[in-house]
Design goal:
Layout (H helix, E strand, L loop, with lengths): L3 H5 L6 H11 L4 H8 L3 H8 L9 H15 L3 H18 L17 H35 L2 H7 L22 E5 L4 E7 L4 E8 L4 E3 L7 E5 L5 E5 L2 E2 L8 E7 L2 H9 L18 E2 L38
Antiparallel strand pairs: 1-4, 1-6, 2-3, 2-5, 5-8, 6-7, 8-9
Length: 321
Amino acid sequence: MSDPEQEDSPFEQPVGSLLAAERAKQNLDLSDIAARLRIPIRHLEAIEAADYDKLPAIPYSAGFVKSYANLLGLDGVALSRSFRDDIGNERRGHFEPEAYEPVDPSRVPSRMLAMVALGVAILLGMAYLLLRFEGDSSDLARLAADTPEEINGAMPALPRVATAATPAAPVVPTGPITVAASERDVWVKITDRADGTTLFRGVIKLGDSFTVPDTAVDPILRTLLPQYVKVSIGETALPPVGEPDVLVPTYSLKRDALNAIAMAPAVPAASPAATDNGSDAMPVEGAPSLRPAPRTPALDPAGGRPATARPISDDGGADRP
């Protein structure tokens, strides 16, 4: 009786034998074919020897056979199909299903053991819930038992508002008392009211100054343009001696009076005339404008030309306002 596998195959011998015979006929080396096809040589050797256990899965092995046959000039499709049938029959013939073995009853836990384990799990869950409930209840009881005094004592103290610091006492200015011009030249007269001595009389140029002698008992200042007069004690400048364009006849230059002005607190919107210095400021009379009107130079009777202005001395001539 013939083999049914041989009857189903269109070739008289196995596919591997046909490939090996054709390769030998063409005098080709198996290593050269493996390099050209990029197929491991061990797989080609297993195909020629019909050693199907050393081959990978059927789709890969059938692909190797097809490439091998095409390289040799044979019908790769027919040989691949015949090889697939051969390897399939071979593996089905060697298939041995594993016998089913029932589980050993000794390895299965008994029903009693399972029930005990379930009971233990339930008890553990109930114990956890009970402990947690007791902890929450104790917190609520402690919160309810707290008195208002305890609650108030536990509250953090509010930060105190910082009080304003007491201003430091003003420093008494020191240094010489000077009278200088500010922004422009200005005429002033400084006398000692104690004995009537004239300490200075004339125009102070811008950038110049006059230092009041320390020997003066009660020096006073007279000026028509107080906004251009700057009185200082050392490096400390004092406020203006009067309102603009208002005659200041007796502005005290005594050190005590000037120190009182320098150390007095600043009063917002206070006019210079409000400073109490013992001076008698009065507006200039007889002019619509507060600034002095320009004077017309007198004519020289001899030549009809304007007379040259001369400084006014202390012992003669008309005095300034």
